[in-house]
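Thread: sanity check for a docking pose with zinc ion

Original post by kr_44:
Hi all, I'm comparing my docking run against an independent structure prediction. Below are the sequence and the ligand SMILES. Could someone generate the full complex and paste the structure tokens? I mainly care about where the ligand ends up relative to the chain.
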Amino acid sequence: MDINNRIPLMQTHLDFHTSPDVAGIGSKFSKENFQKALKLGNLDSITVFAKCHHSMCYYPTEVGTMHPGLDFDLTGAMIDAAHEIGVRAPVYITAGWSHYDSMMHPEWRSVSKDGSYTSNECMPVEGDRDTFKPNYSWYMMCLNDGEYAQHIYEITEEICKRYKVLDGLFYDICFMEEACFCPTCKKGMKEMGLDPESEADAKKYLIIKRQSFMTKCTDILRKYHPDATIYFNSGGADPYKPEYHDYSTHFEMEDLPTSEGDYNKISLRARYFTNSGKKYIGMTGKFHLAWGEFGGFKPKEALKFEVAVMAMYGAGASIGDHMHPDGEMELETYRNIGFAYDYLKKIAPYCYGGKTVCDIGLYLSDDREANSGISNILLENQLDYGIIKDNNFSDYKLVIIPDGVVLDDAGLNALNTYIANGGKLVLMADSLVENGEFQLDFGVKYKAGAEYDCDYITLREKRDNIPDAPMLNLVPAHRTEVLAGEVYADFITPYFNRTFNRFFGHKNTPHNKDSERMPAIVKNGNVVYMAHSLAKSYARHGSVYHKRYFMYALNLVLDTPTIEVSGIGAEGRCTAINQTDNNRYCINLEYAVPVKRGEATIIEDIMPVYNIAVKMRTDKEIKRVYLPLTDEELAFDSADGEVTFTVPKLECHTSIVLEY
Ligand SMILES: [Zn+2]
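Reply from moderator J.T.:
Ran it for you. Here is the predicted complex with zinc ion included:
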């Protein structure tokens, strides 16, 4: 069977990081309770554990350490119980964190440049007996193909041999550290002709060795289970580590929006993997905050919201849980998960299996803040986007290239062809600046970076939704000279930089009205350039006016988006797919407002919004518009290639079908 068809939509990721200081492990495990939980949860897959961060194994092992409080094959019992009711059960193996192994074999640990053992976020792993141990403090193990990696290969082989039906393997904590300077790695670097004292060489070595680790794990799995899935995790599939993507059969995008990242993180990552040719799953937790939590609950309505968002970005879903050491599944958790997945089942036909409809292609920069700022601005304007890969500019009507991007010759040729063919381009700050010059000739000459620590932008035309006054930018503009094209906004500078020598009041120095006006927004043909990094400003400071300036500039070239939605504010989201096999478009809308409560960002009240106006431009003749979940027909107007209709009510999420 094709591996891709075996990736689940509705999964639980069951953690079991269980201290050896607790006895009676799995003593309350029962097939009936386990299956009841899976059924309550509507699951089609559950990732079960074979080896945890304490290094404990949950099956009789000859190469690892079986949990001393366990006297039966818990891993196998879970696999069998799941299979009996038709649920997949891929198996979890921790890689990078393994506490008992690290105590028995300190030489298996990863080592930092200064010779100290590497730990997660540099936290202390050991200390006085009765002192509080920081959460998530673990030593990093060296996976660079040395003795510890060998140990993981042996564990892998043992599991592969033991379980005749093995759906997949999930390796955790694979890419947390970027370099290792343990004696084995230093020796290996020398043998490879690399400098063991060089940070850059150590990073290069780690990537090569990590790829080798993944290849060896895969080879072992394939010997026994040619169709099984394999996924290498580290805080979720990472768009910024493409060198590791080929080694996984699918992607699980770990995300805990209440405490890590935010509710927008899923969108950019999902869009990165949308056209990867592999399936991708969103991953969240049933927890209030994060992994490892016992007794923490997220409201079921919030889980439903998260799962609906995953679906509307084409992702399957996985919800994390942490099983009690006695092996009894907490049914309350599975009632909540079941509530969310019951909804996912209903909306699945309208979320998967189509081609994404979007106008905008985003080129990912190494500047993640700029990327996420742009992503957020687009999402908050209900403008979905794709990620540019392999210079596929021509797939989009408009391309945005953020700060810091420099293209190679092939990229530049593709971009020039795209523009010559009428493609629209938005540049900002120092995008496409190489050796102090723009790579692209669009009538603007690059001069220099900012001279002052802040500046002030003003539009030349008056707009109702933007202040008619100089507006502060704490991420100041790059300086350019306009040779051709029209200037739409200018910026002026402060009297001086704020220093110990000269400063002005509490904060930024005011604008000097006599300072030279320099171009802030320029349009020449199909190219718009913003001298500021307004997206980065927005990501950092959250001013709605930075967002509006950005949108003002974007709209100078994005005149007719395919889909326009009004009435769901900044927290509303919109995606659409074209299901050509079914002769229909499916539009998905959602709305909820995450709020900050203490250290958490939560969703509590999901209030309905009413009368959302939707306009879609299409060359298809639309025959019917309806809400499939309630089978409600929507009146629509169709003229000049535009279909318009109103969705009377949106509560959390809705799907809309446009048949053609
Ligand atoms: Zn090492």
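The chain has a mean pLDDT of 96. Hope that helps with the comparison, let us know if your pose agrees.
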